[in-house]
């Protein structure tokens, strides 16, 4: 569904991405892993259609990206509308639904993310984890086949983070499946979520083969070995090897 071919990007003539290619199928999660400042968010914004392409090509089901139509993005902050209640933040995402159908859809979305008791709350009354869950509900409300997530769970406590990680896996696997491009600097999170991991550093992306990881996620020894392999790959990238 997603094909990124030979993507390069610079800021003020300083290269950030160099000849990056990514392929992603429906029902799969590809994780972009790398240190801060390595170009992960820039790549995500290019795929989302939020930055103009300088070199290379981005196609989603054979079409260029159109924000809100074939891509939906969750940013590092929740970007909720503070002047609208929780239910109203969701209603904005459901304008294509008949007005009579929206209350039931909103109730179902809030139940799914565990916020049924907060429909009439203001965003500022929610905890950080609850705000992230509301942002996830807004993503669930879209029909976009490609979901883009930028450092989504870094600031959450363990319980909230695990809940949203589970929801992310479910998002990729439910129904016909959506493709998810997930940015993180956490190696452990990359191993937990990724069907494929791309190590991004020095402007280029190098695949880290995690074959059959789905069946092996509970195997601590295997995860430890994969973690070591990714660390080695990141060190090589940083040194320019």
Write structural notes for this entry.
- Helix 4 runs parallel beside helix 5.
- This protein has eight helices and nine strands.
- The chain is globular and about 50 Å long.
- The longest helix is centred in the C-terminal third of the chain and has 20 residues.
- 36% of the residues lie in helices and 24% in strands.
- The strands form two sheets. It has a six-stranded mixed β-sheet, with helices on both faces. A three-stranded antiparallel β-sheet has the order 2-1-4, covered by helices on one side.
- A hairpin with a 2-residue loop joins strand 1 and strand 2.
- The chain has one domain: Rossmann fold.
- It is α/β, with parallel strands linked by helices and 241 residues long.
- This is ATP-binding cassette domain-containing protein.
- GO terms for molecular function: ATP binding; ATP hydrolysis activity.
């Amino acid at each position: 569904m997603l094909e990124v071919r030979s993507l390069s990007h610079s800021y003020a003539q300083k290269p950030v991405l160099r000849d990056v290619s990514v392929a992603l199928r429906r029902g799969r999660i590809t994780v972009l892993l790398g240190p801060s400042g390595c170009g992960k968010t820039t790549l995500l914004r290019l795929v989302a259609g939020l930055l103009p392409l300088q070199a290379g090509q981005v196609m989603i089901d054979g079409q260029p990206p159109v924000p809100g139509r074939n891509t939906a993005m969750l940013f590092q902050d929740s970007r909720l509308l503070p002047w609208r209640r929780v239910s109203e933040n969701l209603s904005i995402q459901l304008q294509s639904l008949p007005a009579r159908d929206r209350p039931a859809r909103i109730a179902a979305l809030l139940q799914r993310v565990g916020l049924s008791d907060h429909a009439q709350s203001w965003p500022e009354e929610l905890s950080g984890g609850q705000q992230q869950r509301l942002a996830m509900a807004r993503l669930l409300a879209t029909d976009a086949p490609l979901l883009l997530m930028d450092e989504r769970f870094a600031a959450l406590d363990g319980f909230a983070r695990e809940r949203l990680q589970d929801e992310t896996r479910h998002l990729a696997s439910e129904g016909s499946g959506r493709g998810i491009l997930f940015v993180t600097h956490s190696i452990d999170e990359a191993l937990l979520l990724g069907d494929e991991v791309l190590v991004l550093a020095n402007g280029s992306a190098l695949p880290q083969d995690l074959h059959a990881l789905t069946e092996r996620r509970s195997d601590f020894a295997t995860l430890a070995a994969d973690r070591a392999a990714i660390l080695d790959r990141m060190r090589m990238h940083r040194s320019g090897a």
